[in-house]
Amino acid sequence: MRSLSEIKGFTPALCSQLAKLGIPSIQALLLHLPLRYLDETRITAIRDLRLGEQTQIEGVVVHNEVSYKPRKMLNVRLQDDTGIINLRFLHFYPSQVTAMQIGQRLRVFGEVRPGFFGYEMVHPTQRKVGEDTPVNQALTPVYPSTAGLSQAAIRKAVNLVLQPANLLETLPAWVYQSLQLPDFASSLRLLHQPLPDMALTALEDRTHPAWQRLAFDELLAQQLSMRQHYARRKQSQAPKIAASQTLVKQLQAQLPFSLTAAQQTVIAEISHDLSQPHPMQRLLQGDVGSGKTIVACIAALQLIEHGWQVAMMAPTEILAEQHYKKLAGWLVPLGIEVAWLTGSQHKKEREHSLSRIANGEAMLAVGTHALFQDQVQFKQLGLAIVDEQHRFGVGQRLALRKKGQQAQLEPHQLMMSATPIPRTLSMSYYADLDVSVIDALPPGRTPIVTKLVADDRREEILQRVHDACAQGQQAYWVCPLIEESETLQLQTANDTFAYMQQTFPQLKVGLVHGRMKSAEKQAVMQAFAANEIHLLVATTVIEVGVDVPNASLMVIEHAERMGLSQLHQLRGRVGRGAAKSTCILLYSKQQCSQIGRQRLKVIFESNDGFQIAQADLNIRGPGELLGTRQSGVPMLKIADLERDAALLEIAKVTADRLLENHPAAVAAHLQRWLSQGEEWIKV
Ligand code: ADP
Ligand code: MG
C-alpha cells in the first residue's frame, strides 16, 4: 500500500501535520471522519436570523472600519434586502480588511449572537461571491484538526484519497446486507461528501446507515483483533489440573460459612478452565464484599494439590497484607506454606521469601508488584491471580505471566475486579477474556444506609461519630482527595487526625495514609482490625479491599470530588458485618460541580455496583473506567457503546463466524482498521 507522502499533493508539511493528528496512512485518513457538518446549502435572510443559530447569509458590505477602542478590531456591516448585521473580527490580516471593502458581495457563515447594534457574528468564515455564484450543493464536513491545518486542507487531502482503489470492501456482502447497511465505499463517500439535499439532522445524529456501517466495522475490528488474540493464547499449553480431591473439602470443612450458589457457579467455571491443557484467561467480577477471595483461594488449592505454585498479586501493600493474612489463615492449617513479598520488606525477610518461592517450599506467594521483579523465581508457577486487575498495567500482568513460562507451559491466569464492568464494556474492551460474575452477595448483610450531608453540618456529624464510637462501634473518617497536591492531601489528613485526637480525648484515633512506611500502615490496620482503634482517619488508601467487619460508620469528606467507583469502593469498607452500617457523604455546596452532583445522586440512590458502573460509563465514558488497561490500546472513535449496543452484539457473533470461515476477510478488515500497526489489546 502506498504511503501518503508518495501521493501527489501531500507535501512533507501536510504529512507531518496529519501525523500529528494520528494519521500516518491512506486508510487512517479515510477513517478520519467529520466531527460535524455545516449547512452552507442555504442562504438565510438577515431578517430571519435567530440567536444561537449557525447559518449562512449573503450580502453587500456597507461599512468597513478598524476601531481601536476598547481594543483593535475590524467591524464590517453586511446588508441584504431584508436587513443589516454586524461582523466583528478581533484578529485579522490587512488583506482581510481589503477583501471586505465596501461594495463587496460576501457569503458569510457563523453563529448569530447578540451585539451592540442588534445581531452580530464574531469571526465568521467569509468568501467573496458574485451575484449568481451557486450555493454549495451538499453539507460541508468539519474535521477534527490541529493548529495550522485548515479545514479546507483536510477536505482536499481526503478528497485526494477517496478513490475506489482505496475503498475496497473487506466484508462478505451477507454481513452488511443482513443488517441493511450500505457497502463500505458508499458509506465512506457519503460521510466525507454528503449527497445534495441531505438534511443536517440525518448526519448529525449518528444513526444514519452510513455512520452505522462505520461504527459496525470499527466494533467488528475490535472483536476480531481481541478474539484472534484470545485464540492465539488458547493455543499455548498450560498445566492440566484435575479437580481437587482433598484440600478443597478440608478447607470448606473449616470455613465458618458455606459458599453461595453464585460462588459455586464461578468456581465450576474456573475448574473447567483449569482442567483444559490451555491457559485460563478469566476475569472474575463481583461487587465489593461478594466474596472473591475465597473463590481465588479454592482455585489456588486446586493447583497446590497437584504440586503447582500459585502467585497472588494485589495493587497495594495494605491489600496484599490482608490477603496474605486471610489466605495463610485458611491454608496453613492445611499444611500449606504461604510466602509474602513486598517492596518494603527487610532484606533478610525478603530473601527468605524468595528462596522459599524458588525451592517450591512456599506453594502460594502473595504480594504487591514486587512479585514480578527479576529476582523472583518460581519453582513451578501454575496460576497467577491478579486482584483489582484494572490497577495494573498491561506490562505488569504480562511480566507475571512470563514468570511461569517454563517447559513450554504458561500459567493459568485469573483476574479479579471489584469494579463491576458494564456489559457493553466487558463485551468490547474485555473480549479477550472469559468473564465470570458473582452476582449475589453472601446472605446476612444489612444494606448500608447512605446519607448526603452538606458540610456546614460537619460539627453535628463529628458529634455523631463520637457517640457511635463511644458506644463501641468503629468508624472511618476519609479525608478529601486533593488531586493537585499530594502534600496538601497528607497535610489535611494529619490536621484532621490531630483535630480528632484533641476533640475526642477519650477515643483512640488512628491515622493511615499512602506515605506511611508499610510496617506503620500494617500496625495501624492491625490495631483497627483488633478494635484497639475506634476511629480511623484515612486517605483513600483504604479504598480497595480493606476488610474490617466491625467498622460500621464511614464519613467521606468532599465526596463530590471523588469518582463513582471510588465512592462505591470506599463505602464497601463498611457493611461487612452483621451490624447496620451508615455511610455519610459530606459535600461542599459551593464546590459541587454538575457532574459531582450527578455522581452523588447515583451513589445515594444505588448500592448496586453494576448500576453504579453503568452510570459511571455514561458520565465519564469508557476511557476512565478502563484504567490502565487502556494504555497503549486504541479507543473506539466512531462507535458508542451505549448508542451502538445492538451493533456490538452483532459484531461479536459476526467476528466468530468470520474467524471460523473467512480468514481473508479478517485479514483485510484488520489491515484497514489497524493500519497503524496497533492492536486492540496486548495481554
Ligand atoms: P471481595 O469480593 O470484595 O474481595 P471478600 O472476599 O473480601 O470480598 O469477602 C468479603 C467478606 O465476606 C469476607 O469477610 C469473607 O470472609 C466473607 N464471605 C465470603 N464468602 C462468604 C459466604 N459465602 N458467606 C458468608 N460470608 C462470606
Ligand atoms: Mg477483594
Automatic annotation (TrEMBL):
> What does the record give as EC number?
5.6.2.4
**Which SUPFAM superfamilies does its entry note?**
Nucleic acid-binding proteins (SSF50249), P-loop containing nucleoside triphosphate hydrolases (SSF52540)
Q: Name one GO molecular function term.
A: DNA binding
Q: Which PROSITE patterns match?
A: HELICASE_ATP_BIND_1, HELICASE_CTER
Q: Which UniProt keywords apply?
A: ATP-binding, DNA damage, DNA recombination, DNA repair, DNA-binding, Helicase, Hydrolase, Isomerase, Nucleotide-binding
Ranges of residues in domain Helicase C-terminal? 471-618
Q: Which reaction does it catalyse?
A: Couples ATP hydrolysis with the unwinding of duplex DNA by translocating in the 3'-5' direction; ATP + H2O = ADP + phosphate + H(+)
The top EC class is isomerase
Q: Helicase ATP-binding domain: from which residue to which, for each copy?
A: 273-438
The superkingdom listed in its UniProt entry is Bacteria
GO BP of this protein: DNA recombination; DNA repair
Sorted alphabetically, which InterPro entries does this protein's record hold? ATP-dep_DNA_helicase_RecG (IPR004609), DEAD/DEAH_box_helicase_dom (IPR011545), Helicase_ATP-bd (IPR014001), Helicase_C-like (IPR001650), NA-bd_OB-fold (IPR012340), P-loop_NTPase (IPR027417), RecG/Mfd (IPR047112), RecG_dom3_C (IPR045562)
Similarity remark = Belongs to the helicase family. RecG subfamily.
Its function?
Plays a critical role in recombination and DNA repair. Helps process Holliday junction intermediates to mature products by catalyzing branch migration. Has replication fork regression activity, unwinds stalled or blocked replication forks to make a HJ that can be resolved. Has a DNA unwinding activity characteristic of a DNA helicase with 3'-5' polarity.
In its UniProt entry, what is this protein called?
ATP-dependent DNA helicase RecG
What species is this protein from? Methylophilus medardicus
Lineage, opening ranks = Bacteria, Pseudomonadati, Pseudomonadota, Betaproteobacteria, Nitrosomonadales
